[in-house]
């Protein structure tokens, strides 16, 4: 359609001012195009910049260096995290989209649109901070091969998606949850309710036969007037489950870059990671 309008101007069937308005160009530019059309025909309407290098294109050496570092050190990073680390650790200032295109073209990253769709049942966030805190433990090789696998206990606020407490421990046990819950209470006070899975820490193994599913953890929370609820499935407490997946990606790499390989050192670094994580992904509560 634009080329037809330019042709109409050249044949005096459309005034330059009207053509400029429809094409989103200046009248002067339309007059230049008309002159080129009369001299060269339709080929004269092709942009003279076609096939030339963009003024904003990055040097190929910079792109090659970035891609080499991604292959060498950040092959399992997402584009956003890889972009951040290229800037923080290597001084390479690239946009996220540039890194995304580099990784996609090299086959390092698969865009979300090309992945199989995931279906989640939506649930509205709670209104206030502390109204519901989802808790879960994730057994994983948090230190890669530098140390044995261990468990990370995570407390995620439902209203803000904020990581409230992260605590590394040997395994999911009642004592470990007591330690993590004590750290939460000392920093934030009592939550209204804790939402967990149906692990034996939270629900008695003989609840179906005896009718009494209260555990030591449950009794302790009862004394503190904190409700404890057990989810029937993992998707029911999806916020903490998705947080675990994100932590298994970002947190593992942060620990690797900082050469942290002990639970004690990781617990000392956790508050700094939580603050940065909330600044990037946290949400404001709907109510105070």
Automatic annotation (TrEMBL):
- One Pfam match: HTH_32
Q: What molecular functions are annotated in GO for this chain? A: nucleic acid binding
**For the Integrase catalytic domain, which residue ranges apply?**
112-288
What top-level branch of life does the organism fall under? Bacteria
> Which PROSITE patterns has this protein been placed in?
INTEGRASE
What sections of the sequence does the record tag as coiled-coil?
Answer: none
NCBIfam families (UniProt xref): transpos_ISNCY_2 (NF033594)
What GO biological process terms does the UniProt entry carry, in alphabetical order? DNA integration
Q: What is this protein called?
A: Mobile element protein
């Amino acid at each position: 359609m634009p080329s037809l309008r330019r042709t109409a101007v050249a044949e005096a069937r459309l005034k330059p001012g009207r053509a400029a308005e429809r094409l989103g160009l200046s009248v002067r530019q339309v007059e230049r195009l008309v002159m080129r059309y009369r001299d060269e025909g339709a080929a004269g309407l092709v942009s003279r910049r076609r096939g030339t290098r963009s003024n904003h294109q990055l040097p190929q050496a910079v792109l090659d260096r970035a891609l080499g570092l991604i292959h060498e050190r950040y092959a399992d990073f997402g584009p956003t995290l890889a972009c951040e680390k290229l800037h923080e650790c290597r001084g390479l200032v690239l946009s996220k989209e540039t890194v995304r295109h580099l990784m996609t073209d090299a086959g390092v990253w698969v865009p979300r649109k090309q992945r199989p769709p995931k279906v989640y049942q939506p649930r509205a966030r709670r209104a206030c901070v502390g109204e519901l805190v989802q808790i879960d433990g994730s057994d994983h090789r948090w230190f890669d091969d530098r140390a044995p696998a261990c468990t990370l206990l995570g407390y995620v606020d439902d209203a803000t998606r904020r990581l409230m407490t992260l605590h590394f421990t040997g395994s999911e046990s009642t004592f470990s949850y007591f330690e993590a819950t004590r750290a939460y209470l000392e920093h934030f006070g009592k939550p209204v309710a804790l939402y967990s899975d149906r692990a034996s820490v939270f629900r008695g193994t003989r609840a179906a036969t005896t009718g009494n599913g209260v555990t030591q953890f449950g009794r302790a929370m009862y004394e503190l007037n904190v409700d404890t609820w057990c989810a029937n499935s993992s998707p029911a407490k999806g916020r903490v489950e998705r947080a675990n997946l994100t932590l298994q990606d970002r947190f593992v790499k942060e620990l690797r870059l900082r050469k942290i390989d002990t639970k004690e050192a990781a617990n000392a670094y956790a508050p700094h990671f939580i603050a940065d994580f909330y600044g990037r992904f946290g949400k404001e509560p709907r109510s105070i």
